[in-house]
Amino acid sequence: VIVAVLDTGIDPEAGCVARVKASIDFTGQSNTSDEHGHGTHMTDTIACIAPNASFVNLKVADKRGRCDSSTVAKAVRWAADRGAQVINISLEVANSDELQAAVAHAWARGAVVVAAAGNSGSSAPAYPAAYEQSIAVAGTNRNDGVAVLSNHGDWVDISAPGFKIYAEALNGYDLETGTSPAAAHVSGVAALLYGIAADANGDGHVNDEVREALESSASALPNSGMGHGLVNAEAAVAVLPG
């Protein structure tokens, strides 16, 4: 299963780099290495959950984690047109018609776009997470409450662990809190589901079956605004016919 990670790049010394099949720079920096650590952390999180995943490293953000809607839109289209089945976007950018169209294009091509709900502690929609064709992911803490600063609201689709997530970054391992690692968790489970999903409705794709399995199997949470609940890998796999 091909997972495209749109982020700050991937550290060439990281263990997960062995599963990277292609790397493209969309920032104009002429390199795809991770100078921030965020992209490596997200990729390693997905890799630990989904042993069946191979990665496409699409660098859309600079060493300070900054990026823009147009760059992300171009990377989403690039990934979808080259067969990525899961597109992980653990970042937030400004709303734009170009970005919305790119996410819709990815869905039409059979991909799921998994996006972080953002870390403003707000119920205001964040993008690209809030687009209808995206899976918006909020973060939970150790008590299954809302993680520190996680956005929430009726536009959120699902939640996942987002408090002190341990994974490889730059120069070793690090802890990451927020909706970024929460989105990576959901992307990992989505990759697992792509490995077994069948086209039940005959539309030529399985992204709708994967999304339905993710959302219908989520475990209930005590807080509102957290989507269908906490992602549950075992339950999601069980939903799909074996």
Describe it:
The radius of gyration is 16 Å and the shape is globular. The chain contains six helices and nine strands, in the order ββαβαβαβββββααα. The protein is of the alpha/beta class and 242 residues long. The chain starts with a strand and ends with a helix.
Radius of gyration: 16 Å
Uncertain stretches of 5 or more adjacent residues = none
Q: Pairing-aware structural class of the strands and helices? A: alpha/beta
Would you report the number of β strands? 9
Q: Work out the strand percent.
A: 15-25%
Q: What is the residue-mean pLDDT, rounded to a whole number?
A: 96
Summarize this, please?
The protein has helices spanning 38-49, 69-81, 97-108, 179-194, 207-216, 233-239; strands spanning 2-7, 20-25, 54-59, 86-89, 112-116, 134-140, 158-161, 165-169, 172-176.
Write the layout of secondary structure elements.
Layout: E1 2-7, E2 20-25, H1 38-49, E3 54-59, H2 69-81, E4 86-89, H3 97-108, E5 112-116, E6 134-140, E7 158-161, E8 165-169, E9 172-176, H4 179-194, H5 207-216, H6 233-239
Parallel strand pairs: 1-3, 1-4, 2-3, 4-5, 5-6, 6-7
Antiparallel strand pairs: 8-9
Helix pairs in contact: 1-4, 2-3, 4-5, 5-6
